[in-house]
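We close this part of the discussion by returning to an individual protein. In the encoding step, the backbone of a single protein was reduced to a row of integers, each denoting a local shape. The sequence in question and its structure tokens are set out directly beneath this paragraph.
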Amino acid sequence: MIEYSIFYIILAIINGIFGLIVGAGNLLVPGLLAVGIPAHTVLGTIRLSFLGGSSTSSWRFKIKGYLKFREGVPLIFSSFFASILGTFFILSIAERIATYLLVSIIIISVVLLLFRKKIGVKREKRKHSTVNLLLIGIGSGFVSGAFGIMGGAVSVLPLVFFERYTMKQAIALSSIRGIGSQTAALIVFALNGAILWDVSLMLLIGGVIGSLVGVEIAHKIPEKIIKFAFAFSTILLAIKILFF
């Protein structure tokens, strides 16, 4: 049991660091599946770690100057309600068709991101659209609630493309968006008895530590490197979802 507890904490630490450098942590799901936890239970058990990590990283990104809470509020509330819909969706029907559609859209977006060199790298001062932020929160919240992963990619990409945030600003906003979506998903999965709380608490400890370290590392890495790391990791995740 002790060995598994250490494994869960270390896994969550690595996931938290990785997620804040490339904008999407995706190691918890395959890690928990590998030790024999059922898929739906995995999607519920990871939520507390993601919630703790999102809260911690949002606080640290605010201190570093990448995040304005007033811009994150529309994302929190819209993703909260959308995540509830996404969670019920995944608990009630097969998700394969939706997965293919989602992955196709993300791959196309990532390719466009790589070909447009200034996007995500150059800071642009502009007034941001509350409507766009609400829509981004709805889309990413639904995906996060349904799949547990890819929500970060679904929020980071439109924040960079349509609102012209830098990669670090978009990742910071994606973190605060996660507070809403992960809270909603945590409630729904808990009501459905799909959470292993002892495992979840170990993941929470690792998630908080990983987020603290991840923000510090991301702060020191150039935007251009984060952009390519995000694109590379997102494509790898899409391939994994499609074929493995």
Summary: The chain has one domain: 2-243. The CA atoms of residues 4 and 70 lie 40 Å apart. The chain is about 80% helix and 0% strand.
